[in-house]
């Protein structure tokens, strides 16, 4: 399978079955269209944000050794509180949210370690992304009929609502599991919880008693007539607490459970509509969060929390079907990022545009920067290959002469010394050796010397090509490159092509800048791997077969420039005979680009 990827986590979409893609595509397109119109978040639009630090306790009883959540560690954190649907009045009954960004002590705010999204209520009303989409699409009557057969969903809806006096007095739950990998190899499912530092605020703080089968749309619940507090009193309260001597303080808690061995039990454990038994799997404290700085409204609005941000030690649980419990976290991460690009007017990667275009919901992307860019390109001036007269004369006279003279001149130098030596041995040896016995030695020595001259001329004439750079097609750099390509072609025909698949060939590639794990089982038997040698990376146990072409450059017709891009063949990857890989293609670990296949630029091959 060959797939296009202009985004680091595009493999999320490729893991989904067709139904999952269709359901998620429709949801993403619907919310993306609303985001473009609102130019703001669809959910959790208003709130307050601050930053501070997370200090893990020096001793966490019963918790295995973990690289990230290790006793005594400290991290910078950012937190954003918000209302779920209420965008104009904090007094409305609504679920409240707490999004936390954990930043490594050696990183800046642009390199977060982990993003967590929590809310009030210890359960969510939809088990999977399919259930969530169906819930949004159906009416009140269908929802009420559903909760008759699943009363725990009704409980989840009502328990999420909070009548809040302060964001800092509520308990927030992740509802969704993450996969923890510990230093001893053990794996566990983990849920997060944030509670106020002051224990007088228990889990029932602000709780709303059910008044019917289901709560009405929370954005439409009016405040009590006697309530005279300002519309944004929760944000004002958060600001006042941050600047107070006590600051805003929380305790971060975890709830852990071993990963079940069978799929059915895992689905039950991952079901976020049912909280884990607190008696069997209690929450325990791991550290304290102190918020001592306030973010401005602009800084708060610009925050982008990515649920898919993870590391090997704290991973997201993947899903391939929209009916799997893990699909809620896996799928929403795609929707979050698409909507964040729309909201912040960032160019939308082409892979996501295609994903939206394939949905049943049509989105007007005229407000998206990528669409504007495409329209501008269409209206741009026609690209031409016209060149000045002096360049034309050079290209038709001097350059062809040099491209013939230079390769054969260097080849003559490579041949001259070994040939003289062989003739000297033959003439001065006491035992007159027949000359034809020495010819194989001559050919081997002259071939190795020619290969070394070719590698040296590469660095002298061409230098190092950098991934992502461009060069005008009639530039001196391109002329030097064509000169070297002529030298390389002659040296290949004379000797190097016979070295394909041998350690001498791998050493030659490394001398020209390729990253080849030649001592770790790599097999390369094609001259097409050295067209742009310093843009090629072939990892251990990978195989590139005969006549495969790895193009590290491409002419796209944009302002008459040649673009360069790195090609990577991952561990145990395979590129078949006569397959073609264009710039920035990545063959994944154990991936296969089969014989006679074509991988277009920036594609990811499984």
Shape: elongated
Helix/strand structural class: alpha/beta
**Alpha plus pi helix count:** 16
CATH superfamily of the largest domain: Catalase core domain
CATH class of the largest domain: Mainly Beta
What do you see in this structure?
With 606 residues, the chain is α/β, with parallel strands linked by helices. It folds into three domains: 1-39 and 331-380, no CATH class; 41-220 and 233-305, Catalase core domain (Catalase HpII,  Chain A, domain 1), CATH 2.40.180; 389-605, no CATH class. Strand 19 (553-555) and strand 20 (561-564) form a beta hairpin. Helix 14 runs antiparallel to helix 15 (476-494). The protein is elongated.
Question: How would you briefly describe this protein structure?
Answer:
Helices cover 34% and strands 20% of the residues. The protein has 606 residues and is α/β, with parallel strands linked by helices. Strands 2, 3, 4, 5, 6, 7, 8, 9, 10, 11 and 12 form an eleven-stranded antiparallel sheet that branches.
């Amino acid at each position: 399978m060959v797939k296009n990827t202009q985004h680091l986590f595009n493999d999320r979409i490729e893991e989904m079955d067709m139904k999952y893609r269709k359901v998620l595509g429709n949801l993403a397109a619907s919310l993306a269209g609303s985001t473009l119109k609102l130019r703001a978040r669809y959910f959790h639009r208003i709130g307050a944000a601050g930053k501070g630090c997370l200090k893990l306790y020096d001793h966490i009883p019963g918790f295995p050794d973990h690289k990230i959540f290790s006793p005594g560690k400290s991290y910078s954190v950012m937190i954003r509180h918000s209302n779920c649907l209420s965008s104009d009045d904090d007094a409305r009954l609504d679920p409240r949210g707490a999004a936390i960004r954990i930043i490594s002590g050696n990183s800046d705010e642009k390199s977060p370690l982990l993003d967590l999204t929590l809310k009030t209520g210890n359960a969510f009303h939809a088990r999977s992304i399919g259930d969530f989409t169906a819930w949004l699409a159906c009416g009140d009557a269908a929802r009420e009929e559903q909760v008759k057969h699943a009363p725990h969903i009704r409980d989840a809806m009502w328990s999420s609502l909070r009548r809040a006096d302060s964001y800092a007095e509520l308990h927030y739950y992740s509802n969704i599991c993450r996969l923890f990998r510990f230093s001893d190899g053990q794996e566990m499912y983990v849920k997060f919880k944030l509670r106020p530092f002051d224990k007088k605020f228990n889990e029932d703080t602000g709780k709303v008693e059910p008044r019917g089968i289901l709560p009405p749309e929370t954005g439409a619940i009016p405040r009590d007539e006697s309530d005279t507090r300002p519309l944004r009193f929760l944000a004002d309260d958060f600001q006042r607490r941050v600047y107070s001597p006590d600051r805003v303080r929380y305790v971060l808690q975890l709830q852990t459970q071993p990963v079940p061995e069978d799929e059915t039990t895992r689905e039950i454990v991952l079901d976020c509509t049912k909280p884990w038994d607190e008696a069997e799997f209690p929450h325990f404290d791991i550290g304290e969060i102190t918020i001592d700085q306030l973010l401005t409204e602009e800084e708060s609005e610009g925050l982008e929390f990515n649920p898919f941000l993870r590391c090997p030690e704290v991973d997201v649980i993947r899903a391939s079907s929209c009916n799997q419990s893990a699909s809620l976290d896996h799928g929403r991460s795609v929707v979050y990022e698409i909507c964040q690009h729309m909201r912040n007017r960032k160019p939308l990667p082409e892979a996501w545009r295609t994903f939206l275009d394939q949905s049943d919901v049509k989105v007007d992307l005229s407000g998206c920067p990528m669409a504007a860019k495409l329209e501008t390109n269409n209206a741009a001036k026609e690209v031409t290959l016209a060149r000045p007269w002096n360049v034309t004369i050079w290209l038709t006279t001097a350059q062809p002469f040099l491209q013939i003279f230079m390769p054969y001149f260097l080849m003559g130098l490579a041949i001259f010394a070994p040939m003289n030596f062989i003739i000297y041995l033959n003439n001065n040896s006491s035992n007159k050796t027949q000359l034809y016995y020495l010819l194989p030695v001559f050919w081997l020595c002259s071939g190795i010397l020619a290969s070394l001259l070719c590698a040296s001329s590469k660095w002298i004439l061409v230098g190092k090509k950098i991934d992502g750079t461009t060069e005008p097609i009639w530039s001196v750099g391109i002329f030097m490159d064509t000169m070297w390509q002529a030298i390389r072609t002659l040296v290949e025909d004379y000797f190097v092509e016979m070295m394909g698949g041998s350690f001498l060939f791998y050493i030659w590639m490394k001398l020209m800048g390729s990253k080849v794990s030649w001592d770790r089982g790599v097999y390369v038997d094609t001259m097409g791997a050295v067209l742009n040698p310093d843009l090629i990376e072939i990892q251990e146990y990978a195989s590139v077969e005969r006549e495969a072409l790895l193009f590290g450059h491409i002419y796209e017709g944009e302002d008459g420039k040649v673009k360069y891009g790195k090609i990577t063949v991952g561990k145990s990857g395979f590129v078949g005979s006569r397959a073609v890989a264009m710039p920035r293609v990545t063959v994944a670990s154990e991936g296969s680009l089969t014989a006679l296949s074509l991988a277009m630029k920036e594609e990811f091959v499984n």
